[in-house]
Amino acid sequence: MYALIAASSHHSSSPGIWFLLLPALTVGYLIHCAIYPFRPCRRCDAGRLRSASGKAWRYCRHCQGTGGQLRIGRRVLTGLKTTRDRAKK
Ligand SMILES: [Zn+2]
To answer: Which residue ranges make up each domain of the chain?
Structure first.
């Protein structure tokens, strides 16, 4: 996504378009994160870390053995929701 933005802004004659596009991209990204909140954990294989022998394994503590990690956008959404819930009270 960053490469796309960098490549496009090089040729763009009006930088003002990004003031319209960026919020749209951000909202799109957040919606995507609401539907698909997880990304694969990079530290393990499906939530398990194997020992050097390959016969023993333990749960990965980075993803609590789920094999997936919350995406940043989803954390932002959770943060927004918590802020809104607090505001109601
Ligand atoms: Zn993991």
So the answer is: 2-88
